[in-house]
Each structure stands twice: as structure tokens, then as C-alpha cells.
């Protein structure tokens, strides 16, 4: 059976060149970077070289990169760690602004802070999932310490105006006594957009290796010099004392290799993925009773997302899987109750439609044959499900 993996927003396959770069660090180069003998120091050098390479790609200093285990950890550190540091634990003093469509790692970190007494302004989005910079400007208060808005939403692919927002915050900071820090979750953006932190004007930026062909279990947080952070994990002094735990060296080396590969022929890859995504979107919209979710133009190249009338999301995923296609849906079936996606809800998509959500996410390895196969199979699956769907 043909197999087509179109769930690259969930995770990606490790690139063989990444694996090759990692292997020495899983074999002979096994020292602990904290050890002062030559086994350790050789590895420490590899970690520090990796840090320099990331920094040159993101446009920052090596000392501004903290390696973590994943983007969830980076987001937790950015939100909880930053707010704790800036308020000295006096949470009731602080106000933060967070978009209502953040990934759960950001969303739940903000909810956690809210429970501790932080005042949170939850930003609304329009029907395309776009935030409104004016709404943020209006929400800012004297005690606002953080704005957190993701660069690209993972469920429907809308690109948020991060650089514009960065500019606005920078301008406001010039006239304020206390600074507003700006965090973005760039997990879904890194492969296709410019993530230069100077250009974006961010103080904190989260990334995850497994979303761009590095292994799972490694991520990073860019933290601009001077941005206060309290560490969340106690122990050793690794990562400038901000993240205890022996470094995941092989994966750090893999993450850097993957990041270098992202930058190789980036323009051509973007063009190709956009072409395939648009072919997929055009073909799927022909089915009828299907609506594109997210912004039609301001959308990341690899994400095509829809709501399908009269077909339930998980049923589509399961039937697609039977034909060898991996996809995903925003609705999750928990305890037999269908929970509509909070992202689609924020975009005012009614629950009866959001139950039929479908996300197909491509990679630079996706082929035109893969797309043709989906366009051959999916209409039949939808037809089949519509036939058996209860009439409302
Ligand atoms: N942020 C976004 C936008 C994501 O898409 C994901 C993963 O789906 C995460 C954060 C969490 O990443 P990780 O699995 O590395 O914790």
C-alpha cells in the first residue's frame, strides 16, 4: 500500500544527514560536557559550537540560546520563568497578554500564572485566526510584563504579524518605566519564514527540533540578554544556570544540523511546498461542503486545513490511515465526548463544522504523487462518511 505522511506539523522524519551528524555522539563521543577531562571537554566544545551556529542563524549571541527538551519546555520557561523572575514571585502585581490560540504549552502556562494571581488578557482572533495589534495596544497596562503571540498557528497555519508587533512593543518600551517582554512560539514557522530575532523584535523565541527533521526530545529558547528568567528545573548549572540537567548532546548536534539544512535552498523549498499545498487546497475545495480554515494568503507553506461538512474529523483520519495517509484533526475525542478545537472556536467556527476538521501538513519531502493520491482518495472517504452521517 502507498504510504503518504501528511502530518508534518505533528512531527517530521529525522533527516539521514542529521542522524549521521548525531551518531558519533551516541557512540565514541560520550563524555559529559560538565566533566573537566578531555572526554568531557571535547563534548562541551561540540555543544558550544552548536550554540554558536544556532546563534548565527537566528541573528543573536551564543549566550542567548538555552537548549531545552522541547518547545513545551521552552514555552513554560518563557512564560512562567519570565513572569516569576520579573515579579519576584509576587504574581498579583503582573499583567500579561496572550493569544487565545496558543499551543497548549503556552496557553496552559498562562492559565497556570492566572491561577497564581497574574492578570491575563486573552486576545481574540478574527475569522482567519489573525490577532489585531490595536487590541494589544489597547490592552497594555502599566504593569504589563509580557506579550506572547505565536508566529504560526499549528492547527490552521495562519501567520501572525510578529515583526510588526515587535516594532510596536519596542516603541512603547521607550516611554515606559518597566519593560514589556515579547515572546513568540516559532515552532511552525522556522522552516519557511525568517526567524531572525532582531528582525522580529522578540525577547524570547521557542523552537522544537522534531518539527524540522531533528529528533524528538530537543528544543531551544532564545532569551535576549537582560531578559529575566527564573529556572523551573533545579539541579546543576547547565545552560547558564537556567536549565538543570546533563545536555542531550547528540540531539543538540542533530538540531543544529537540521537547522543548517533548513537554511539550504530555503527559497526553492518554500516555493515547492507552496505549490503542492495550493494544489492540495484547490483539489480539496472542489469536493464541496468543505471550507478552508485559517488565512487564505497569510498562511504557512506546509499547512492545509479545512472543516468538512457532514464528516467527522477522527473518522476521516482513521479512514485515511486505512489507505496509507497520515493526517490529523483539531477535534479530539476524549471520554466519548467530542471536544471541538479551541482554535476553531476562537475563529467563530460553529461546533458542528469544527467536528469535521482536517489538517494535512506537508514537508519539503512531500511529492506531487503524494498530493495526487490524497486527491484521489479523500473525496471517496468524505462521500462515504456523509452517507452514514446522522442527518441533523
Ligand atoms: N508549539 C507549537 C506551535 C507546536 O505546534 C507544538 C507541537 O505541536 C509545540 C509548541 C510543542 O512542541 P514539543 O512537542 O516540542 O513540546
In short:
A hairpin with a 2-residue loop joins β12 (332-334) and β13. The mean pLDDT is 96. With 392 residues, the chain is of the alpha/beta class.
Distance between the termini: 36 Å
Assign an overall shape: globular
Helix fraction? 40-55%
Q: Strand share of the residues?
A: 5-15%
- What topology, given as strand order, has the largest sheet? 2-8-7-6-5-3-4
Kindly report the CATH topology of the largest domain: Aspartate Aminotransferase, domain 2
The hetero compounds bound to this protein are: pyridoxal-5'-phosphate
* CATH architectural grouping of the largest domain: 3-Layer(aba) Sandwich
Structure explained in plain terms:
The structure is a single chain. With 392 residues, this protein is of the alpha/beta class. It has 2 domains: 16-263, 3-Layer(aba) Sandwich (Aspartate Aminotransferase, domain 2); 265-388, Aspartate Aminotransferase, domain 1, CATH 3.90.1150. Helices cover 40% and strands 15% of the residues. It has 13 helices and 14 strands. It has helices at residues 16-22, 38-58, 71-87, 104-116, 133-139, 162-174, 197-200, 249-263, 266-285, 313-322, 342-346, 351-354, 368-388, and strands at 4-5, 65-68, 95-99, 119-123, 144-148, 181-185, 204-208, 219-223, 290-292, 303-308, 325-326, 332-334, 337-339, 357-361. It has a 7-stranded mixed beta sheet with strand order 2-8-7-6-5-3-4, sandwiched between helices. A 3-stranded antiparallel beta sheet has the order 9-10-14. It has a two-stranded parallel ribbon with strand order 1-11. Helix 1 runs antiparallel to helix 8 (249-263), helix 3 runs parallel beside helix 4 (104-116) and helix 10 packs across helix 13. The two termini are 36 Å apart. 48% of the residues are buried. The model has no long low-confidence stretch (mean pLDDT 96). Pyridoxal-5'-phosphate (PLP) binds next to helix 3.
Amino acid at each position: 500500500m502507498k504510504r503518504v505522511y501528511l502530518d508534518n506539523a505533528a512531527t517530521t522524519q529525522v533527516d539521514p544527514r542529521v542522524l549521521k551528524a548525531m551518531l558519533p555522539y551516541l557512540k565514541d563521543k560520550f563524555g559529559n560536557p560538565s566533566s573537566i577531562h578531555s572526554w568531557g571537554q571535547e563534548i562541551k566544545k561540540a555543544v558550544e559550537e552548536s550554540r554558536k551556529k544556532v546563534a548565527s542563524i537566528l541573528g543573536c549571541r551564543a549566550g542567548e540560546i538555552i537548549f531545552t527538551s522541547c518547545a513545551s519546555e521552552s514555552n513554560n520557561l518563557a512564560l512562567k520563568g519570565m513572569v516569576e523572575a520579573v515579579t519576584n514571585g509576587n504574581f498579583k502585581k503582573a499583567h500579561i497578554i496572550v493569544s487565545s490560540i496558543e499551543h497548549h504549552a503556552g496557553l496552559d502556562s498562562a492559565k497556570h500564572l492566572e491561577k497564581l494571581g497574574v492578570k491575563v488578557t486573552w486576545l481574540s482572533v478574527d475569522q482567519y485566526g489573525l490577532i489585531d495589534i490595536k487590541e494589544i495596544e489597547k490592552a497594555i497596562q502599566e504593569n504589563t510584563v509580557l506579550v506572547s503571540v505565536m508566529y504560526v498557528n499549528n492547527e490552521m497555519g495562519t501567520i501572525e504579524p510578529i515583526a510588526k508587533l515587535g516594532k510596536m512593543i519596542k516603541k512603547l518600551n521607550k516611554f515606559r518605566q518597566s519593560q514589556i517582554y515579547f515572546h513568540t512560539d516559532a515552532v511552525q514557522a522556522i522552516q519557511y519564514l525568517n526567524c531572525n530575532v532582531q528582525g522580529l523584535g522578540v525577547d524570547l523565541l521557542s523552537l522544537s527540533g522534531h518539527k524540522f527533521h531533528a529528533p524528538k526530545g530537543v528544543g531551544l529558547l532564545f532569551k535576549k540578554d537582560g531578559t529575566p528568567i527564573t529556572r523551573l528545573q533545579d539541579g546543576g548549572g547547565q545552560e547558564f544556570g537556567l536549565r538543570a540537567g546533563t545536555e542531550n548532546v547528540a540531539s543538540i548536534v542533530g538540531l543544529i544540523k537540521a537547522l543548517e539544512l533548513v537554511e539550504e535552498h530555503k527559497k526553492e523549498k518554500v516555493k515547492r511546498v507552496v505549490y503542492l499545498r495550493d494544489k492540495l487546497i484547490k483539489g480539496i475545495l472542489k469536493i464541496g461542503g468543505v471550507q478552508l480554515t485559517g488565512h487564505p494568503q497569510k498562511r504557512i507553506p506546509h499547512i492545509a486545513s479545512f472543516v468538512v461538512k457532514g464528516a467527522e474529523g477522527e473518522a476521516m483520519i482513521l479512514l485515511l490511515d486505512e489507505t496509507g495517509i497520515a493526517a490529523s484533526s483539531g477535534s479530539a475525542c476524549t471520554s466519548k465526548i467530542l471536544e471541538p478545537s479551541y482554535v476553531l472556536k476562537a475563529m467563530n467556527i460553529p461546533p458542528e463544522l469544527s467536528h469535521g476538521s482536517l489538517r494535512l501538513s506537508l514537508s519539503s519531502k512531500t511529492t506531487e504523487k503524494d498530493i495526487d493520491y490524497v486527491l484521489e482518495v479523500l473525496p471517496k472517504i468524505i462521500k462515504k462518511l456523509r452517507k452514514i452521517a446522522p442527518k441533523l
